[in-house]
Amino acid sequence: MRFSLPPDTIAFIGRTKELAAITHTVTTAAEHGGVVAIHAIDGMPGVGKTTLAVHAAHQLTQRYPDRQLFLDLKAHTAGHQPTDPADLLRADGIDPKQLPDRLDARIALWRDRMAGRQALLVLDNVASTAQVVPLLPSSPHVLVLITSRRRLGDLHHAVHLHLKVLPHADAVAMFLRLVPRAANELEAVATLVQACEYLPLAIAITARRFAAHDTWTMTDLLAEVKTSRRRLLTLTSEDTTVQAAFDRSYRHLPPQRQRFFRLIGLAPGVDTDSYAAAARAGTSLDDAMNQLDRLYHDHLLEETSPHRYRMHDLVRTYARTLTKPQDGPDQAFDRLLDYYRHTAAVAMDTAYPHEREHRPRVPPSRTPSPTPPNPAAALGWLDNELPNLLAATKSATDHSRQAHLLHLSTILHRHLHTRGRFHDAETLHQQALSAARATGDQTAELNALTGLGHTHRLQGRHEQATDHYQQALRLAHASGHRPGELLALTGLANSHRMQGRYQQAADHYQRVLDMARQIGHRNWQYEAWQGLGRLQHTNGNPQAALTHHQQALALATDLGQPDDQARAHDGLAHAHLAMHQPEQARTHWQHALDILTRLGVDQAEETTPRPSATTSPTPRTTSEPLRKNGSQAP
């Protein structure tokens, strides 16, 4: 049998670059002579590797008139032995009785039969480079297309194509080609292919299921799909499912890697690095790095950036269906929360070192964690991990891990505001407020109320900000929490000033200054001087403003708080400018800019100070002091 290609599919869409790459390789091989044109196509289960290989083969049949052979090597098919050259020889018409007994003799016979032939060979479902090398002919007029779920890194002479899911437009076009009657429901089709995460196999199955039900609308199909993400795994048009495709990859993993796969599939967030994976699996960093790399080469993970990996959503859903009680999912979740809490605290201490004493001290991580060498690296870690940290806090809320939630709320507050993530900050503080009230932790409640006030004020929602500050003030006053009163009073003063209520603002700033002097808290004295300076500037008294900001700068310098120094320099610059002294103003602004550049601040904020929940690993009682974080640069 010289021609055994399966039929091409009408549903083939896109893959223009990949087809062009194959054609280019064929042309290049023909020009140089003596070179076998080999393409290795790899990708996750269901992404369309075989479909691409078969389609490309049909496009090139005229170039290879002597042989067009397709052979499934069944690398991931249960109950089948790996293919050897005997299978190809039988496919090429050799009588089984004439097959040599030894492997090297079969290889030689196979290559001899291909000598001088213009042949096209599709080797589908390959397990490894070692499996495929004996099957490669030596004729310079042969094109070999190989598909595998693994990256065949040792196949050095091949052109490697790593197939990804379809772009949105191609996914929609594929669905419509399979079911043209859906063309009048394009919005629903777009929603459906997005739910399928653009995986061709999932799109094909849902399209065939829709085609089999003449009475269905796209709304009916979406209702079935959206019942559960797991429904997409088991949905079938006849006997094919996405889950079955994933099963064929999963069952070939060794037991340790299967457990690792199941556990990282449970992690909240969008991606992972080796540290977070080690925490989840309770393993060493080296083992986590190795397991991630192996799963990446098996196309059960995608690499989003160097050493960062994510699961396709359907793969993640599949992994979660496999969870076993002996995996210890609850313990794995606690290890991950401990890791995120500890590492976020370390990163914040590195990025904002002058505020270290004002953040809660948390227990060390039980698994390896990175130590950022400098503020830039710390800010990079915080930015990269922020989506995962926020997902972790939501999961902590959902699973009643109040201590983690309350700590992360305080730890992350400053960075969320620095990056302008006010919606995330509001969500986080609202979750913390509910948890604090449920547990009766008044210190945590104060933190959450003032955090919400701060977040609302920075968004111009002054009525809500004032309400939260006043709630915090009443709570602090009732419990005799003087630092809490200072915090709430300063928030109210800033809010009044920003609404033009200057006398009320001045009264609150003066109360803060008097109380801070009484208890010897110089951070709050700084805040009062800054606020009074801004008021004097607004009231047209730049000389008085200059005096107040000089007091603030002296305190910030003595306290070693560079971003507060930047704020004071900004206030001094405005005062000098109002006094028609542009050179002095320019000098102070340059000082402020230099400081902010060193700190990596890229979101200006006119600020209220922010408390930390605790300086101990567990939430503290109201009798313990409530501290404040240093405020942020303007």
Key structural traits:
single chain; 634 residues; P-loop_NTPase; two-stranded antiparallel ribbon; 4 domains; ADP binding; Rossmann fold; alpha/beta; TPR_rpt; TPR repeat; disordered C terminus; Arc Repressor Mutant, subunit A; TPR-like_helical_dom_sf; 27 helices; 5-stranded parallel beta sheet
Count of domain modules: 4
Task: Characterize the overall form.
Answer: elongated
CATH T-level fold name of the largest domain? Serine Threonine Protein Phosphatase 5, Tetratricopeptide repeat
Q: What structural category characterises the helix and strand content?
A: alpha/beta
Could you tell me the radius of gyration in angstroms?
32 Å
Describe this structure in words.
With 634 residues, the chain is an alpha/beta fold. It folds into four domains: 16-163, P-loop containing nucleotide triphosphate hydrolases (Rossmann fold, 3-Layer(aba) Sandwich), CATH 3.40.50.300; 168-245; 253-323, Arc Repressor Mutant, subunit A (Orthogonal Bundle), CATH 1.10.10.10; 332-615 and 622-629, Serine Threonine Protein Phosphatase 5, Tetratricopeptide repeat. It is 59% helix and 7% strand. The chain has 27 helices and nine strands. The chain has helices at residues 16-32, 49-59, 85-91, 103-114, 129-132, 168-178, 186-195, 200-211, 218-226, 229-234, 242-250, 255-265, 274-281, 285-297, 313-321, 329-351, 375-398, 402-418, 422-439, 442-458, 462-479, 482-498, 502-519, 522-538, 542-559, 562-578, 582-599, and strands at 37-43, 67-72, 119-126, 142-148, 159-163, 302-305, 308-310, 610-612, 627-629. The strands form three sheets. It has a five-stranded parallel sheet with strand order 2-3-4-1-5, sandwiched between helices. A hairpin with a 2-residue loop joins strand 6 (302-305) and strand 7 (308-310). Helix 12 crosses helix 15 (313-321) and helix 25 (542-559) runs antiparallel to helix 26 (562-578). The radius of gyration is 32 Å and the shape is elongated. Mean pLDDT is 87; it is low at 602-634.
